[in-house]
Amino acid sequence: MNFLTIVIRSLWRRPVRTSLTLVGISIGIAAVITLVGLASGYEKSVVRQLDVIGIDVIVSNMEGGMMPKAFDESMKAEIAKLPDTEKVTTVLMQMLSVEDAPMMMVSGREWEGFTWDQLEVEEGRMPKDASEKAVVIGRLAAEVLKKKVGDTVQIETDEFQVVGIVDGQSVVENGAIILALPLFQEVSGYQGKVNFIDIKVPKNTDSGRITALCEKIEALFPEVRAVKAGEVVGTSQGFRIARAMSWSTSLLAIIVGVLGVMNTMLMTVFERTHEIGILLALGWKRRRIVFLVLCESAILGLLGGMVGVILGAGALKILELTPTIRGMLEPDLSGGLVIQAICIAVGVGVVSGLYPAWRSSRLTPSLALQG
Amino acid sequence: MTYDSPHAHVPGPVFEADQLVKEYDDGRVPALRGITLRIEDGEFVSIIGPSGCGKSTLLNMLGALDRPTSGSLKFKGTSIPDLADPAKYRGQEVGFIFQAFHLLPTFTVEENVQIPMFELPWSRAQRKKRAGELLDAVGLSHRLGHLPTKLSGGERQRAAIARSLANEPGVLLADEPTGNLDSQNAVQIMDLLCRLQTEHRITLLLVSHDLHVASHANRIIRMKDGLIVSESRPGDVTHSPQA
To answer: Which fold has domain B13-238?
Structure first.
């Protein structure tokens, strides 16, 4: 028998209560995994999308919240004149309810802009020109909308023919409906407006020159922000809000977990007053008893964390297959997040055990022996 | 019997109490009202008296399980209430035997005996070996893996005695060790305690309300209402009019 045997034996003396506490912690941790995994997955999806398309700098106005506010497309011509701008193209992107899909990315792209280049036609063809009333849809969007080539899709009040199904090589692209910019501007009521200007710089342009380009754009047009593609996630207010919301919601779940473990450990200490009295009478130091209680609560946290990670991973998988989410983002269950969640769970256990441990250390042996 | 106490047996008092007072409930309930006693190394002393006379309270004070309200209480010249490390004292200087055995129900007999050894720098194997030796010494080597609930009262008390010896204490404090046992088991337990005490010159303080049990001691202290009312030898007590 070693010390760990004593800890585990104590926990399993009340298996039902221990199991219920584990469920409480694991739900909290599952919430962390799910919410943070979704937010992180969304960030990664966007980063991957930008990488695939080959965008180096994004010009937008993030005051609009999750989707940038639209601005005048004429800005593009001025930006294109700046040095270190190899290709410049405009995009109007909106999250819309399309037919049965409650949220879908609809992307109006400047005709012949470089953002069309990475789209690989899997079925059908690309639109013939900017005036053809047609769309191509990503393969995930096609699954969600149950569309095939030749069908029509209703965007806002207008109908468009699906002429192709494409592989955009990223979840965001594959979950989108893509059409020529003027068509989308007209149907969405944003004539002459865009909300992104995407810039590709010449190969081997060093980071300092790209930074200088961003500064020039912001100096010319103070109403927009020019951000290097790699920094979009870190600097975007929308992503920050999503991250903060996911963590703050998780925090509530964690607090519930803390209260659950604390309640269990307090009950355990109260119930085991007599046993603690015996241990004190047998020469156990108070700090060993404190350590025993903390180890028990930490192990509760650890086990709860492990179960929570499994539950959270399952929830992410289910969400990934849900029509509402499918194609919008790929949930991210990274090793870092798993370690973070388990550390939180153990931390929850230890913090929850502090007060019960302190209580147990204050017992007078003779009184504790009387129970 | 493989048990050997490492404590040096030097003549002189193990315990000295002077005007020891213990009150509960802000002085409204006096438990000890000025106890003065001296217990020599290797002595076997019984403390007898009616229920509520303060004998268990006195034992708790001697074992540093509780603190006196006033007075002086020393172990080998050191004030017990002022001990820097009372846990070490409880774990290594004294061993407790209780009326209700106080074995931990979710641990086997062998594990129960190992529990006090966790404060010593012993390996798992050393703890296991010593527990086996102690249980062998009390005649329980065939019950190592049993839970306390599967043992008879006498066996439980034997296990508790083995546990009390785990850290090789020089003093055993036994609070009504036969109180929950039938007469046959009580005799066996007393025989065991006497054997341990005489073979190894352990200082044994035994609290009991049973005169026959108490009469095994070399000296009997009689208590009433928180005071020592008499001291005698076993032969004297059995013929005493107060008995």
So the answer is: Rossmann fold (3.40.50)
Q: Does B163 touch chain A (CB under 8 A)?
A: yes
pLDDT digits (tens, 9 = 90+) for B111-161: 999 999 999 999 999 999 999 999 998 989 999 999 999 999 999 999 999
Q: Give the nearest partner residue to B66 out of A1, A283, A366, using CB atoms.
A: A366
Q: Is B130 on the interface with A (CB under 8 A)?
A: no
Q: What is the DSSP string of B70-138?
A: EEEEEETTEESTT-S-HHHIIIIIEEEE-TT----TTS-HHHHHHGGGGGS---HHHHHHHHHHHHHHT
pLDDT in tens, A136-188: 999 889 988 999 999 999 998 899 999 999 998 887 888 899 999 999 999 99
| A174 and A104, same domain (yes or no) | yes
Boundary-marking domain end, from A223, A249, A284: A223
The answer to whether residues A316 and A254 belong to one domain is yes
Domain carrying residue A341: 3-44+239-369
The pLDDT tens digits of the residues spanning A263-290 come to 877 777 777 788 888 999 999 999 999 9
| pLDDT, averaged across chain B | 88
Q: Is residue A52 part of a domain?
A: no
- Whether A365 and A262 map to the same domain: the answer is yes
CA A73 centroid distance within chain = 31
Task: Report pLDDT digits (tens) over B166-191.
Answer: 888 999 999 999 988 888 888 989 99
Q: Does A95 touch chain B (CB under 8 A)?
A: no
ipTM of the prediction:
0.88
Domain-ending residue, one of A195, A223, A251: A223
Identify the three-state secondary structure at position A38.
helix
Smallest Cα distance from B185 to chain A, Å: 23
> Does some domain include residue A56?
no
Residue among A226, A134, A122 nearest A173 (CA): A122
The label of the residue with tokens 């200087």 reads B93
